[in-house]
Automatic annotation (TrEMBL):
Keyword Calcium: yes
Protein name: EF-hand domain-containing protein
Any GO molecular function: calcium ion binding
The EF-hand domain, residue ranges: 19-54
InterPro entries tied to this protein: EF-hand-dom_pair, EF_Hand_1_Ca_BS, EF_hand_dom
UniProt keyword annotation of Lipid metabolism present: no
SUPFAM superfamilies listed in its UniProt record: EF-hand (SSF47473)
Annotated organism of origin: Quercus lobata
Keyword tags: Calcium
SMART domains: EFh
Length: 96
């Protein structure tokens, strides 16, 4: 479902591999540009764009819907795992 974003592959099959939860979490943390340990909708949009989403604004909205348990409009550290699960389910891959 997602676009290929990084150089890493299973060299035996040469098929793109899905990004792991840890890899996706690191990408999300990279987009916390103001280092407040929260991801705003705009930061999420940029992260989903980096991951290769063709509709990053919608993915950011859906990510917030899935992860923002306290409905404050951001994904904080305690909500990050739900966001990562959502993103993993979208099937973003690494480049072969």
């Amino acid at each position: 479902m997602g676009r290929i974003v990084k150089d890493q592959a299973d060299t035996k099959t040469l098929k793109p591999m899905k990004l792991t939860e840890d890899q996706i979490k690191k990408i999300f943390k990279k987009y916390d540009v103001n280092n407040d340990n929260q991801l705003s909708k705009e930061e999420l949009k940029k992260a989903f764009h980096y991951l290769g989403s063709i509709i990053p604004g919608i993915r950011a909205n859906r990510g917030l819907h899935h992860a923002d348990a306290n409905k404050d409009g951001v994904v904080d550290e305690g909500e990050m795992n739900e966001l990562v699960k959502y993103a993993v389910g979208l099937g973003f891959k690494v480049k072969a």
